[in-house]
Amino acid sequence: MPEGSGIGASVTRKEDQRFLTGRGKYTDDIDVAGQTHAVFVRSPHAHAKILGVDTTAALAMPGVVGILTGKELAADKLGGLICGWMIHSKDGSEMKAPAHPALALDEVRYVGDHVAIVIAETKAQARDAAEAVYVDYGILPSVVNVAAAAKPGAPAVHASIPDNTSYRWEIGDEAATKAAFAKAAHVIELDLINNRLIPNAMEPRAALGLYEPGTESFTLYTTSQNPHVARLVLSAFIGIAPEHKLRVVAPDVGGGFGSKIFIYAEETVCLWASKKVNRPVKWVADRSESFLADAHGRDHVTHVALATDENGIFLGLRVKTLAAMGAYLSTFASSVPTYLYGTLLAGQYATPAIYCEVDAIFTNTAPVDAYRGAGRPEATYVLERIVEVAARELKIDPAELRRRNFIRTFPYQTPVALEYDIGDYQASLDQALELADYKGFPARKAEAAKRGMLRGIGLSTYIEACGLAPSKLVGSLGAGVGLFESAQVRFNPTGNVQVFTGCHSHGQGHETTYAQIINSRLGVPIENVEVIHGDTAQVQFGLGTYGSRSGSVGGSAIYKAADKIIAKGKKIAAYRFGAKHEDVQFENGVFSVPNTNKQMTISEVAFAAYVPHDYPLDELEPGLDENAFYDPLNFTYPAGAHVCEVEIDPETGVAKVVNWVAVDDFGTLINPLIVHGQIHGGVAQGIGQAMIENCVYDEDSGQLLTGSFMDYGMPRADDMPDFKVGFTSTPCTHNPLG
Amino acid sequence: MSSSISLTVNGKSVTAAVEPPTLLVHFIREHLDLTGTHVGCDTSQCGACVVHVDGKSVKSCTMLAIQADGTEITTIEGVANGALHPMQAAFKEHHGLQCGFCTPGMVMAALDLVRRHPSPDEATVREGLDGNLCRCTGYHNIVAAVLAGAQAMRG
Known about the structure:
- Chain B: It comes from Oleomonas cavernae.
- The complex is a heterodimer of chains A (738) and B (155).
- Chain A has 738 residues and is α+β, with helices and mostly antiparallel strands.
- Chain A is built from 18 helices and 28 strands.
- In chain A, α15 (510-522) runs parallel beside α16 (550-577).
- The radius of gyration of chain A is 27 Å and the shape is globular.
- In chain A, 57% of the residues are buried.
- With 155 residues, chain B is α+β, with helices and mostly antiparallel strands.
- Chain B is 34% helix and 16% strand.
- In chain B, β1 and β2 (12-18) form a beta hairpin.
- Chain B is globular.
- Chains A and B meet through α1 and α18 of A and α2, α3, α4 and α5 of B.
């Protein structure tokens, strides 16, 4: 364990003090003068025509400030919600992305769809008035199951798209895969459902929109993972206001897991409505609304086939997936079952031929978008399940079958677009098997049997593509934004540092880990570093936090800005030393010239830069404040092996996870304490999905049956085991942090 | 028709007029501006709103503010003066929080658990935290924190 509080040290978190004492500042904790409260009128039907909306009675109720519907929104010519990644079908046609008005205009397409916003002095008054809004619905046929929606004759979610298909995408070499199957000794096939999940960040989504007529500007406080992208979309596509007249603040955010990346109807409408009623408008979701209207995750139906030779060496993989999109394409929905899914189907294996087809299908449900891993867990599930089944059919130990097929030479170009820079999959598998006492399993199984219990062991390896990149590549694949990250490292005259990052922390501990990077690079104690994020008025343009990008992309931007600080500091110090800047060295926060007694601390250099009395003003600007934008050269490829042991009581059917081992290779760990915590959370999510979590819509009515914590299987403390965590390390070859 | 209530919150006397339907959690957050107590659900399932009423753990969304008349309430803001309480310190030391939203309720529930079980084992902690949801930590570090916090409180 490295000494001190730099990269690699398990320092406790700076942000914990405020969270532990109740001084966090989440969106619902923010109140502004003149604030009103909003409640949304939502569709009770999965699919219906809006024949009329009568607000007369509701408008007359106590405290009501205003009621706005899709008609007013359309009259103001605001754009609809957009999907930011264009996918092309295999025939070359563009994906079908039907209009998605923030308030439904003439049709609702899922239970919870937005019909009107009711604004009142108190939330209770808004709720009462919302119940008095009369909406005349003409019920239409609906479909909630993705497989059913893909069948000919299924009810159309959008009349303009009779086959419910947004796109039919493919990746890989179909002919080569067909040839691989033709020469295979064994073909193993499997049908899989990756069930729909509800994100359930503990903090429900919230928005506070505020119009300031004096400056004709807007402020939005919102539970967002990426405030700049929210501002960009609200400005450029929805047309609320130009970017310089629109400030988006994402303060403390109580978990995101992907569901708070997206630009939603509610924040759009609250912002717009604040100008319409000339009062700040605040909306905080009830948990039941979160179930209905947060973007959901997963929801795939897949057929997979694996071709092997007589020794179990993989020859080809074929995958056909139906991916539910929900009623509309959410902000990043189209990228999830395509470039974040199909490209990961090589996993850790040197399968020479892979072909994957994905049909993206509309259903009368909440939109489906990125959730905890976004496409990559779906790919791992498909691949590891078929490998496990193959091991059984071929009677080869599952660990041995994986070992035989691991990629061993790097860089490795997969048949599905990605180039892995480095990895050592054998190392993490070996350590995982050791920690799990894989060899001792038969004895434990026999012991369990004596107690009348069934016991099983399973393992899984995985690879992720994290830190989405490079901008040029993702642009060529249809992404609507760049995928760099920004950082500003600002020394104050007294030598403390403010780091402005375009990433956003909603539990990841950036205030600590970014300070650790500054400590390692610039020698400044972490208590003298403040990390600022989440406010477009303070921070330079950035792209937020999702897809495991904060360390590799955001951290690298900070590293790059720190390098600029060092370069300028050397010039300032060189002037004071009367030396050439090439001769100045920087180490542990001190500039010096070797073999002399010339030394200046970085604090002294910062002071000199801000009090430039003895300073080369003809050559250098005052100040010590540097900006960097880092665009990655490639994805990073964290990988690992997990082992799970389960005991089942055949009398009761109760299944208990009795042992979980996770061995992961994340390259350099900035803060192992925090990394451990993130692994625990991810494992809990996986166990949750495997054992108890499931989002269920009634197939006849389209009602959400798992619409509260009473019905949805949320993992609790006694559903989870202790986790054993280990690490291996093959540092990333293309970013400065490894 | 509002009713007048008098109670003690974090050691201070409070008298306020509240509407009868006002839940204790809303009274704490909106009337007293103590926003550390959070609302995470509408079914009393998540535990983000746990406070102590007369020393016992209560989900403050299950109780009307007028029912708290005459009681002594402690919220997360009242757990420690200055330095962290040993239980809060244990959460920090063991990384028992990430986004921090469930944390106040988790700490309040943990303190009541330790009041009832001064030397809890792991199973008791897991069962005792069953009413508090966390989506970030997988509970592993929360359980470790509560065990360590209990030990620290025993001295």
